[in-house]
Structures are given as structure tokens and as C-alpha cells.
Model the fold of this input.
Amino acid sequence: MKASKVLRSAASLQRTALYSFHLENVGKMVPFAGWEMPVQYAKEGVLASHLWTREKASIFDVSHMLQTRWTGKDSATFLESLVVADTQALPVGGSTLSVFTNENGGIIDDTVINKETAGGFYVVSNAGCAEKDLAHIRKQLADFQAKGGDADVTVIDTHSLVAIQGPAAARVVASLAGKDLADFAFMTGRKMTIKGIDVHISRCGYTGEDGFEISVPHNDVVEFTKHLLGDGSTVKLAGLGARDSLRLEAGLCLYGHDLDETVTPIEAGLTWTIGQRRRKEGGFLGADKILPQIKGGVARRRIGLFVDGAPAREGAEIVSAEGTTVGTVTSGCPSPSLGRNIAMGYVQNGLHKSGTELQVKVRGKLQKAVVTKMPFVEARYYRGA
Done:
């Protein structure tokens, strides 16, 4: 496995190629997943950044994410041994959300897979799981290669990753590229040249809005980001604070909070990520634990909640109408878009249906909560003309 990128310990925080740019724009830097990242900007607080993203467009530095490229004539076979996705059914240029699983069916990490060529994949996974993911991939790769498999995985340590999200994102990118993007649908990716800079661009994101994640050479990323910002009348910088509230409104999981190695894809409501062929054939780690759950059911389910009173944060108990603890909140915050408190968590199977009345315990007091369908805010992904 080729990798020249060295992942430092949590005690030695890494900085993205945009670090100085964040400081110039008065970004408040905080430790996050072993990196120094902007949580917000002085000119735009978390609430303002959140609403601006929903109304216009914002840029997020997501260069801390792990970018890898998978190659070799057996790369699809190797990738499918680690994830639940059906990469054979994925067209060239297509992307899909998937999960790496362990032998017990738990989720090692969630990831987005883009099929760059018939036998090559561009994969993005979480910064906080980078060391764990790489150790897992390397171990499995060594075993695969020892059996004669032709596959390799390279860490892309030459490129930053920036996301532009919001209803104005497509117009901004199309203008800079000088191209009509009507044929560029959600969960597809391609290579493009924008303002003379060669990039890999995927139409996806973590906010529920239309938008793009763009892999840019480190040496070009400041210039590229300035092009995206323009005069600041349409696009602004946003940090981790807004990204978290946006993703929760979109009903999207945050690894280490809503997903971990004790949670299976079925419990997490991610059954849809398991392709039909994979459900029949299996072939991924933990398949013997996961696949029976599709028909046999699970003991707990991930849910969304509307919460009365104070916000219910991670760790808050979820209590039945009869007063029994039936689950735990894994994410929660006031929703800037809705003006009410929302939360995500896990409850006993049978209590997961929309409209079920529950309670949450906040600071020792019980507050009313109602199970609701996610996303909390309707997604506005571009599905094509």
C-alpha cells in the first residue's frame, strides 16, 4: 500500500493547506480529529453561517478527510470485501455512500466511493478514523495480495478537499468552469479544469443542500478557494459548527457519535447502502451478522426526534411514556432552520415509528419528545435535468 502521508498523533495537531487563509479570515481554530480546524469565523457566527448555507452558499475546508485511490484489476473485488456497496453496479463516474464493516457487523467508518474508471476508485472517509481505517485496509490488503490479488491503495497526500454547499453552489461552479452543469447529477464525480486548475469534483456534500466536494492540489487550494468566494456577496466561509447543525438537519450521521463499531448498518437505518447483489452474495466482513438482520430485525433503531424544552445533547436518556429508559441521544441541537430542537438517537425496536411519543432526560428533568422522520429539513440534491 502506497502512502507518503504521515498521520501524526492527536498531541501534534495537523494543519490543512488553508490554515493561514483561515487565520487571515479570522477563523476560530479548534482541535478536531487531530487537526486544527475553523469552528466559525468572526464575521459570521455559527447561526449566520448555517442560514447563509441554506439560502446562498458556503465553503467548508474538509481537507482533514482521508482521500485514497484504489487501483489494480482486482480493486473492485478487494474493495467489496471491506464495504457493503455493490461497486459492480456503480457506473463509471458514479458515487455511493457505503460503510466499512468489521467481523461482528459493526461499522468501522462510513465512506463515499466514486468509480473513476472501470477498475479504479476514489474513496473519501473520515479524518477521525484515518489511522484506524488505514491499519484495517493495510492488513486486509496484505492478506489479499498474498493470495495473488492485484490491488493497491494509495493515500492522496498531495490534494486538499473543499466543499461548496448551498442553492447557489452550482451557479458559482458553472460560472468558474465556463460549463453548463445540467448533466452533472448528485452522487457523480468527474475531473475538470476550473480557472486553469485541474481538480476532481463530486456533486455531493454533508448539508442536505446541492453542492460539490472538490479535490484540489495543495499548492492551488488558496487561489481556488478565493475564486469560489468571489466578492463574498454570494459565497462565504463556514466552519465546523455550522457543518454539524446542517448535517443533523439533513439526518446525516457523524461517526463516533451516531455510528461506531457496535452499530450495524441495519440498526443505523443504512440498509439501503447494501446492494441487492451483496444481500444475496455477501462477501464482506460481518455479512453473516448483518444480512440476517434485514429480515430478522434488530433490537434497536436509529431515530429522529423533535424535542420540547431545552436541547437534548449527546448522552441524554430517551425514556418511554411509562418511564423506562429505552435509548440514548447521539446528536442534538437547536435547528436554526426550523426554530425548534432536534435530536438523533437509538431506541428499542418498536418505538421507532414516526409519531411515537417519548421523553428525554435533560439535566435530570423529563421533556416531551416525538419520533419524526428524517431528514428534518428536506434535502435539495440535484438529481438531473
Remarks:
- The mean pLDDT is 96.
